[in-house]
């Protein structure tokens, strides 16, 4: 498992397609070689920076 935006999928494009369509986005983390909380934080930060999530 890798942080959103750092893997091979184009998450900027994917997330931009969801703007105004999806009310909720769920980040699922499977096995990871690093701290799971850090992976979630960095994924959340990516979504905030790309304006597809808001600070809660």
Can you describe this structure?
Helices cover 39% and strands 0% of the residues. It is mainly alpha-helical. The protein has one domain (1-56). It is built from 2 helices and no strands.
Number of structurally distinct domains = 1
Q: How many beta-strand segments?
A: 0
Work out the helix count. Answer: 2
Major sheet description: none
Using the CA coordinates, give the radius of gyration: 11 Å
End-to-end separation? 24 Å
Mean pLDDT: 83
Q: Portion of residues in helices?
A: 25-40%
What proportion of the residues form beta strands (DSSP E)?
A: under 5%
Brief rundown of the structure:
With 56 residues, the protein is mostly helical.
Which helices and strands, and how do they pair?
Elements: H1 11-18, H2 36-49
């Amino acid at each position: 498992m890798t942080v959103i935006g750092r893997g091979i999928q184009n998450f900027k494009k994917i997330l931009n397609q969801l703007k105004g369509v999806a009310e909720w986005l769920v980040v699922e983390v499977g096995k990871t070689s690093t701290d799971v909380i850090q992976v979630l934080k960095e994924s959340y930060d990516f979504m905030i920076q790309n304006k597809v999530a808001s600070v809660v």
